[in-house]
């Protein structure tokens, strides 16, 4: 896996011309995460924005049971990040918080996902790419003050018809919660996706597909 990420990084730096920045070694052996993002990217700072970080592909608890991301950071195009922050404010007015499952997804990782799912209804085809690959899509849900996810009638990344927004046979509460999330996101400048209640595209769509992969803090070496 390490080799895989190394390879992706090589592609990332090779194709995009990003320069490697110097990362200082701190006295305790931890490698600090660099805050210098490439131009045109913003990071969602979960704590200060009061959003919940559940970036599922930075862990194995996802439909592939594989950790795809080097660590759980949410990168978006600046306008998209602003729109998401606006959505967070609307959720807060209802005593809710946004729970973020996925943001920008490097294109090479999109290809890997397609290999596993191979259904264009749920994972964008190679070549076309997803708005996630452009930093212009977000997967998310809502959580209440007690930290309970709102019932949306299916789990995130349940690639079946029950995840279609207008699926018939949803409990009234789940349908209501889906609409609540959709209203918040539409009011903030996002477009919903009928096949996945959790997926929203930002309205502006002329961003390029990107291969940029973010830095991560490495565990202390003893
Ligand atoms: Zn999505």
UniProtKB/TrEMBL annotation:
Active site per UniProt: 196
Binding, Zn(2+): 132, 139, 199
UniProt EC number: 3.4.13.22
Pfam family, one: Peptidase_M15
Class in the EC hierarchy, top level: hydrolase
Reaction(s) this enzyme catalyzes, per UniProt: D-alanyl-D-alanine + H2O = 2 D-alanine
Site (Transition state stabilizer): 105
Cofactor binding comment, as recorded: Binds 1 zinc ion per subunit.
Keywords noted in UniProt: Cell wall biogenesis/degradation, Dipeptidase, Hydrolase, Metal-binding, Metalloprotease, Protease, Zinc
Listed InterPro entries: A_A_dipeptidase, Zn_M74/Hedgehog-like
Coiled coil stretches, renumbered: none
Signal peptide: none
Co-factor(s): Zn(2+)
Function: Catalyzes hydrolysis of the D-alanyl-D-alanine dipeptide.
Similarity comment: Belongs to the peptidase M15D family.
Protein name per UniProt: D-alanyl-D-alanine dipeptidase
Originating organism: Flavobacterium rhizosphaerae
